[in-house]
Amino acid sequence: xxxxxxxxxxxxxxxxxxxxxxxxxxxxxxxxxxxxxxxxxxxxxxxxxxxxxxxxxxxxxxxxxxxxxxxxxxxxxxxxxxxxxxxxxxxxxxxxxxxxxxxxxxxxxxxxxxxxxxxxxxxxxxxxxxxxxxxxxxxxxxxxxxxxxxxxxxxxxxxxxxxxxxxxxxxxxxxxxxxxxxxxxxxxxxxxxxxxxxxxxxxxxxxxxxxxxxxxxxxxxxxxxxxxxxxxxxxxxxxxxxxxxxxxxxxxxxxxxxxxxxxxxxxxxxxxxxxxxxxxxxxxxxxxxxxxxxxxxxxxxxxxxxxxxxxxxxxxxxxxxxxxxxxxxxxxxxxxxxxxxxxxxxxxxxxxxxxxxxxxxxxxxxxxxxxxxxxxxxxxxxxxxxxxxxxxxxxxxxxxxxxxxxxxxxxxxxxxxxxxxxxxxxxxxxxxxxxxxxxxxxxxxxxxxxxxxxxxxxxxxxxxxxxxxxxxxxxxxxxxxxxxxxxxxxxxxxxxxxxxxxxxxxxxxxxxxxxxxxxxxxxxxxxxxxxxxxxxxxxxxxxxxxxxxxxxxxxxxxxxxxxxxxxxxxxxxxxxxxxxxxxxxxxxxxxxxxxxxxxxxxxxxxxxxxxxxxxxxxxxxxxxxxxxxxxxxxxxxxxxxxxxxxxxxxxxxxxxxxxxxxxxxxxxxxxxxxxxxxxxxxxxxxxxxxxxxxxxxxxxxxxxxxxxxxxxxxxxxxxxxxxxxxxxxxxxxxxxxxxxxxxxxxxxxxxxxxxxxxxxxxxxxxxxxxxxxxxxxxxxxxxxxxxxxxxxxxxxxxxxxxxxxxxxxxxxxxxxxxxxxxxxxxxxxxx
Length: 831
Ligand code: ADP
Ligand code: ZN
Ligand code: ZN
Description:
Elements: E1 8-16, E2 25-30, E3 42-47, E4 51-61, E5 75-76, H1 87-97, H2 102-109, E6 121-124, H3 139-151, E7 153-155, H4 156-163, H5 169-177, E8 181-184, H6 188-191, E9 195-201, H7 208-218, H8 222-235, E10 247-248, H9 249-255, H10 260-268, E11 272-278, H11 297-312, E12 315-320, H12 326-339, E13 343-347, H13 351-365, E14 369-372, H14 378-390, E15 396-399, E16 411-417, H15 435-446, E17 449-454, H16 459-466, E18 471-475, E19 486-491, H17 492-497, H18 507-518, E20 522-526, E21 535-538, E22 555-557, E23 562-564, E24 571-573, E25 586-589, H19 593-603, E26 609-612, H20 620-631, E27 637-640, E28 653-658, H21 662-665, H22 672-684, E29 695-700, H23 706-712, H24 716-729, E30 736-745, H25 748-766, E31 770-774, E32 780-781, E33 784-794, H26 799-814, E34 823-828
Bound molecules: adenosine-5'-diphosphate (ADP) and zinc ion (2 copies).
One zinc ion binds near residues 540 and 583.
């Protein structure tokens, strides 16, 4: 470990650390590290007294900081940058636009597994023409070439051993630059399925006292301390909000240049222990490749229109009704971009969609397809990252929002399917970015084109398309002449009066479902609420169970026999008697997906029911199983939350039931109409996607609602006209830009009064553009009380200027001692 006596080159590094603090941090560059260090490299640094972080080099310069002495960088973790141009610039854009620190962007951007050091293999580039380059090799370079000619492929460490020269980094970089050698950073043996010896520290995660005592125990031995520090770093110990990662003993020893004996000293002292674990293999299928499907005349026309629109406009909106075959058009575009040698990013809003699309795309693109989302293990995600980093090949990445952070090279096309989806927006934690909007910026940094696709474009996107900011291409027929389904609105009040229905199924929905099932077709039941029953109440005294941490009622989950908070995960048993009045009088009301699945079982006992929601899809295999079984018609009825509404393609679905549209219709914010229309039209779009017409039944107690009329007529334009007029009248996006500002504090009265004084300060600068403060819909989450203020700025206003003003106001507020225990954060373009 470099100490204060480490010789520092006259150079300094600006390091991005994964912290919510603005700006970069300056460190000294140890002399031996100087020639190897580049922007985008990962380094290990000490921050504070006992904290160590992986950081990213943002800049290297000769200016020592004026008012403090710098610490040296502790270690360079890779010989090559792990991010590539323009990723840093992209991080900075996100941090600037979404008002958060670059460190927070880094935290979201890098897969957790990138904390694990990889091994770097070096080999000769067979295609390299040595001809006239021979002359220019330095002595070290020539030795490297000789060693590689003999041994073919070596780890950097092996190469250093073989040549007897330490620190080959510089020479390797030179050879790489001129193309004489190739570097391959896949930690191959790490992914081989076998058991590995892993390391753990003998302390509880939150037991810092024991940990400190361990540092005292290793006290004088720098090599033991270094091993311990490296373990803590590699396992992600410091990042208390994330699960601990496995650390292989072998890699730990290698990475620190340690020895088994030093390691043994630590286990003997009871500081570290080992355990065995099976290591998963990264799945690289080499499926056969077939040509994309032949486009229908209508698809072909849209394809050509997109193509020519791209000549004059970098961003195109494809407005194609559900089932029109947008995916096939994307496939053709991707095929061409790959053939030109460029890469493609294909963004979808939901993991369930990657599951279905993986099969479709794998057939055409084979192993040029990479898939990236959070249900993959850390190792697998690092593998995708490294494959992109090391490769200049044309590859396509299919993924959810975090894929915008991957190290693309020559990105030629970004496809954002279901662009209207709110789940492209990250809520929490920062960066609160919208992957759709960020991807458009990313594309422009690469000089790439962006294709947005949707049957129900977001109001903002459609507005831009109508006003020439984006080009607009429409596709108004379903593939092979399938027609959009009939929509029937069922008035549940009338149903109840006539006592037609018992339970949640209305007469018409029961009938239609029965008929479809008898014909051998399938049904989807949509309910946007998971669990068994959302309302638990004592009929004698009115008691209802509340979360201890949040201002919400607990939802009853039957299979685990627990009450659950959907905000913080807190759970409690369902009491047998009312805890308030002591009587045996607890009732449950309302319907979550779990209960609906149960009722479907009872109502259609000859058929098989499956359920898809957060509770049944904890791992990626579960998604695949549910979707595959339904596709193969091994199940007949699929009950689900919004997961079933997003772009899935099942050919035998005839009936779609929306069990309770009311919850969608009564949301108190300016996007509620849009959200309701999109959700209903999308879920309706799952029905009748082939020859035979489908049927959609929407149950509601507000059948007169205007939105339902638009859905019934599949009238996107009608919906849009009404909505855009409202937005203009009340000055909402796209006519303004909204920033929601949240204040959090553990004390309700304090946050209320802070919010008032903060809002007053905001008004002094922004005047009428400030609305609030108000308590959000859920005003306490995970023991924090919340207040929010809405800022509406002119849509053409510069975010840099807004940011500067907000910063000033925040600094003014920070002098209030109560702010020490408070949190303030921004949500730009909330959805
Ligand atoms: P969208 O995404 O517009 O809702 P999809 O792309 O999922 O629609 O297409 C609906 C279905 O029609 C899919 O099963 C798809 O395979 C099929 N399909 C669409 N276009 C073609 C085509 N040109 N040739 C064969 N099948 C097609
Ligand atoms: Zn009671
Ligand atoms: Zn809670």
